Amino acid sequence: MTSPFLEAVALACERDLRVLFERLDFALHPGQMLQIAGPNGSGKTSLLRLLAGLMQPTEGEIRLAGRPLAEQRGELTRNLLWIGHAAGIKGLLSPEENLAWLCALHTPEPRTALWTALEAVGLRGFEDVPCHTLSAGQQRRVALARLYLDAPPLWVLDEPFTALDKHGVAQLEEHLARHCESGGMVVLTTHHSLTRKPAGYRELDLARAGSLADE
Ligand SMILES: Nc1ncnc2c1ncn2[C@@H]1O[C@H](COP(=O)(O)OP(=O)(O)OP(=O)(O)O)[C@@H](O)[C@H]1O
After folding, report:
1. Whose CA is nearest to atom 10 of ligand 1?
2. Is 138 in the pocket of ligand 1 (CB under 6 A)?
């Protein structure tokens, strides 16, 4: 097997002097989806924040294409799309303005592409209203519209299904699976049980954390 795109080696995370997990190993290759499972407070969000370079591990290392993440901030920004559990939407801006702003961190997109992405998440007709007038599920959809643009290969998503209706959940599951099936990668947390899983799906339960490196 080729070297993993993303790799966690002997990872440990401590917060407020409490060890959330330790000696955690896993590897992620193109085409794979990794669902981080575990009870509330077990460290799922903390692990995603480590992978996104937003926190440093207490011990161990995260590697991107075989090199320490800490040495490759630029590569990380180019390759990773992070959507946190809060939708991260600015209420005074419209869906189009929010999306344009979020995309500017990676690749600025033309207006037509923004509108196509908003249509893909069911926001046709809402493109230019202030986001504070949208429902929680609609605001979540604004954030998720980034996944319908020219997105980087690795998606790190914290509770992406929050506030979505049944149809929204099914559509997002399909989109994530297809991203993996076309060579992308997804690491996500969700308390919901996925019904559409790509062939490269694996689960890492932090309540039973251990090794999920290449066997
Ligand atoms: N900013 C912070 N400062 C200190 N401790 C924190 C902070 N954020 C989270 N923690 C602690 O870290 C532990 C793990 O939190 P985390 O959010 O990673 O868990 P989680 O598994 O994602 O939980 P949930 O399923 O409830 O979303 C919790 O006990 C929490 O109190």
Report:
1. 15
2. no
Q: For the chain, what is the domain count?
A: 1
List, in sequence order, every residue forming a beta bridge with 188; answer none if it has no partner: 35, 157
123 Cα: distance to centroid of ligand 1 (angstroms) = 32
Which pTM does this prediction carry? 0.92
Domain containing residue 138: CATH number: 3.40.50.300
| Tokens, residue 55 | 């926190």
User: What is the ipTM metric for this complex?
Assistant: 0.96
Ligand 1 centroid, distance to 41 Cα (angstroms)? 5
Residue 80 neighbours by CB distance under 10 Å? 22
Residue 185 domain boundaries: 6-212
CA dihedral (107, 112, 113, 119) in degrees, to 10, reads 140
pLDDT tens per residue, range 137-193? 999 999 999 999 988 999 999 999 999 999 999 999 999 999 999 999 999 999 889
